[in-house]
Design a protein that fits this description.
- The chain is mostly helical and about 180 residues long.
- About 80% of the residues lie in helices and about 0% in strands.
- The chain contains 6 helices and no strands.
- The protein has helices spanning about 1-20, 25-45, 50-75, 90-110, 125-135, 135-175.
- Helix 1 packs antiparallel against helix 2 (about 25-45) and helix 2 runs antiparallel to helix 3 (about 50-75).
- The relative contact order is 0.08.
Length: about 180
């Protein structure tokens, strides 16, 4: 049963990921991304790694996709297809993707063959918590400091660009 659930979630994830790439509207691509990431969470759920599945849903489906949608709304990026950005390389890209998929798929089949997928015990909340707070404390803290520095840098850059825009506007008023 675990193998069937894992296979169904995997197929849904692959189909949704292909739809992310071929969607002509960016908002539709973001919604397909929600489905793809949710299906990956389903793969973790089928393996009984419930903590990892919930983190997948909270962090990726909840936060990252919302961040992408907010970025689209705040930047006022065009959401309609832009024909001038479409190139004639799509058939070549499709062939390259198909060849890569066949190579990766055959590698997985050769490596694992007909092994059944067994539930894991390392994905429980207790096991992940033990690993994070016993073996990965330093990298976890370094990552948090790095993310804090990136946030401070983004705020500084946005403040600087706002001040630059105000100075440019005041110069135009003085000149005009």
């Amino acid at each position: 049963m675990t193998t069937v659930l894992f296979a169904v979630a995997g197929v849904v994830a692959v189909v949704a990921a292909v739809m992310v790439v071929v969607s002509r509207r960016i908002v539709h691509a973001a919604l397909w991304l929600v489905l793809a990431l949710g299906a990956v969470a389903g793969c973790f759920g089928a393996l009984q790694a419930e903590f990892v599945a919930l983190v997948q849903i909270l962090v990726y489906v909840g936060a990252i996709v919302v961040l992408v949608l907010f970025a689209l709304m705040l930047t006022k990026a065009p959401t309609n297809p832009l024909p001038e950005l479409t190139t004639g390389r799509s058939p070549f890209a499709a062939v390259a993707a198909a060849v890569l998929a066949v190579l990766l798929g055959s590698g997985v089949i050769l490596a694992f063959g007909n092994e059944k997928i067994e539930p894991v015990t390392d994905g429980s909340a207790e096991a992940v918590g033990t690993q994070v707070f016993k073996h990965w404390v330093l990298p976890f803290e370094v990552l948090s400091v790095l993310l804090l520095a990136a946030l401070i840098g983004a705020i500084a850059l946005s403040q600087r660009s706002g001040a630059t825009q105000r100075r440019a506007a005041s110069r135009r008023e003085k000149e005009g």
